[in-house]
Structure formats: structure tokens, C-alpha cells
Amino acid sequence: MFDVETIRSLFPITAQTFSVLGKTEPVPVIYFDHGASTHPPQPVLDTYINFLQHSYSNVHRGKHFLSQIATDYFEHVSGDILQFIGADADENTIVLTNNTTSALDVAAHIMGSVEGITLVTLLEHHSNDLPHRRRGEVVHVEILHDGTLDYADLETKLRAHKVKLVAVTGASNVTGYMPDLTRIARLAHAHGAKILVDGAQILAHVKIDVLPNDDPGHIDFLAAAGHKAYAPFGSAFLFGPKNILDAAPPYIPGGGTVVFVTGDEAYFSKSPDRHQGGTPNIAGAIALSASLKFLQSIGMENIREHERQLTEYALAKLSAIEGVHVLGNPDPALRLGVISFVIDDVRHDLASVILNQEAAIATRNGCFCAQPYLQRLLSIDTNELRRRLFAGQAVDSPGAVRATFGIFNTHEEADELIRMVQLISERRWQGNYDDMIAASCGEVSCGSV
Predict the structure, then answer these.
(1) pTM, full prediction
(2) Which pLDDT score is estimated for 448?
(3) Residue 440 in this model has a pLDDT that exceeds 80
(4) What is the full DSSP assignment across 137-154?
(5) β pairing state of 221-225 and 194-198
(6) How large is the average pLDDT for residues 425-434?
(7) Catalytic positions
(8) Least C-beta-crowded within 10 Å: which of 11, 79, 242, 360?
(9) CA distances from 337 to 92, 173, 195, 330 (A)
(10) Omega before 272 within 30 of 0, i.e. cis
């Protein structure tokens, strides 16, 4: 039984309050920024703090009690992640990193010397695009008018090129749209390519099954991070096959990556140590493991259904407001709890500021580090932006407001978002935020996550 109030009681952040314009008493924060980062619940915090207080030590090669305890905790993390995503531990492994961007970069490095091009969909966060461009030829897969993947274009380009890797998001951080990963994997494998999934947005929201390695729908590589799955910042992972990881040169050669070094030669370890140079974020990895166990205790199917219902409700209400335009395919069955929208004649940063200052609603605004996708969704002509940028002129990048739902959000919180968006669309906000907006106008950055 999914009880949102019981779940809320486990998250200390839900008790945080802020003073807002027009209210005499502070109001609870309404956190709709789960797509950027999620808050650790008390059980995860307890695990994290307990390690720091009572077991803090570096791992491996230490014969003292603390190092042995820390090593035991740490060495269970990979197994917990593999179990969470339904992976075979005999053929695959987990490379621990510090965020999804670094995990995706490791994957790009691993496949960098393999012959062929990389297909990258236009749905992608920059982190699943730019690392591949840096290491070889990239061809982009088109999207349809509603922001969904053009599978026909994917298949055409798989036939037209020698493709080594298809890079695709598990869910867009702009629209929440979830492409059919099994279908994509089957297509990729049928044409001799591997598939890399950016799992940052799906890890905490839907059940992941990478399938057995010999299944045509198997996911070869999966990257994700704890800070989007109710763990603290600083711990992430890349899942991948041992044989491919072992065939690549170390990502960062150094401490922990070798078995034997002379003055002239170095013999490197097998994966994952091969690609985990230096001291890892031990406490963060242990907390990541705890967060995955927390999610499993609630049930990923229960989490998905709760967030689907909330998304369906909010989508219908927001889409009905005159002057509000929700981006992407409106079918809640095809998307996570991610709703990006624009309001006629209201800047995205102004709308986000008003939501915060007058209702303590935490949203994100901008391009969400997915500029090509957002430019398509907003039908932006990039030629003028490009001209101004290269001329050294100020560029006011277009953007949207994004609300992302999580495990402890409620329909009552969604109602407050809907009320405030209605108020903004009718130009009935109370404050003057010219100074706050002026500080961000003219900036070229679109660095929202």
C-alpha cells in the first residue's frame, strides 16, 4: 500500500518552510525539482551519517578494523546496483563515478577506439551527446513534431552507417518522454551496434531491467546517479559488459587501476578497478546502495503509479489554462513526472521566480542542458542566436519552466502549482522582480539540469 503521508514523514525536507510574499506565516516548500536532484530520506541519511561517524576509512589494502568495515560496505555496492537493474553479475560490472556526466564520459571513452560512428538522439541531455562528439563522428537521430523519437529515422541511419553505439536517454529531462529502450536495443543489435542509456531520469521512477546479455533487447551500458535517486550528491555508476570494459585503456590511469608497475611498464587491473582511478566516494556509494534499497522497499511499480497519476492530473489541468503550452507528447503513459511549459508573454525565469517567491514552489527553468531538443520543441531559429553569439553580443536564450514530480509529492501540491500558473497567466502576481530577472537576462548559459 502506497501511503504518501507516511513516505513524506521520512523526508526531513518536507518540513522546511519559507516566508513568501503575501503570507504572514512561512509556508512549506513545494519541491518540484526532482529532475535536478532528489532529497535523501531519513533511512538513507542514517546510513550515510553512521558510516561517516563510526566506519569512516579508506577501502582496500587496510588491515585495521575501520578499513575492513568500510571495504565490506563498499564491496556490496556494485552487487546491490546490479540486482536493482536486473543485471547478470558474471558478465557485467559496475564502474563507480561521481555523477552521470562522468559515467557517460567513461562510456564514450570505452567505445572511443571502436570502429564506427555513434548515433545520438535529439532527445539527449548534453552529457550524452558532447562526450561522443569529442571522440569521433556523431550522427543525430531525429524527433517527431510531438517530441517523440523518430524510429524510422533511427532505423534508416542504422542501415546507412557503420554504427558502433546508439546513445539514448531512458527519459527526457525536458518532457519526461520515455522511448522504447527494448525496441531501440533490438534495432541496434540487429545492425551490430551497442546501446548506451542515460538512466539519470529513470533510476528512481520506473523499474529498470537491462535483460540478459544474450537477449536482443539487452541494454549494454547504463549510466545513472544517486543524487537523482534519493541519495546524497557525488556518487554515480556506469553499468557495462566486462569484456568491453577490460579491452579499453584505463579511463584515468593511477592509484587503484594497476596490479604491477615498473619503471617502464604498467599492468592494469580488470574492470571495474581498471577505470576507477583514485579514492572513490565511499560514503556516497554506500548511501546510493541504501537509497536503492529504500526504493525497493516501497516498490518501483507503486512509485511509478503514484507519479503517473499525479502527472496525468497536473497535465490535464495545466494544459487547460489559456496561454499555457505544455511541451511534448501529452500521454502520461509515455512520460515520467516531468512537465515543462511556457506561458505566453511571460519569461521562463520570471515565472519560476514568481512560483518561488509567492508560493515556495521549487521549479527549474532554462534549457535544461538539452538545447537542441528544446530548440526543436519551441521551433527556435538558431541562426540569429548563433550570429549574435559569434559577434560577441549578448544572447538571451529561450527556455521553459519545468516541474518534476517525485515520491513524496501530493495532489494538493499539484493544485497549488496549477493555481499559481493560472495566476501568472492572468498577470496577477504580486511582486516586482525586475532586478532579479535583470541579473540573468542576456546570458548565453542554458545550464539547467
Answers:
(1) 0.95
(2) 58
(3) no
(4) -EEEEPB-TTS-B-HHHH
(5) parallel
(6) 96
(7) 369
(8) 79
(9) 30, 10, 24, 11
(10) yes
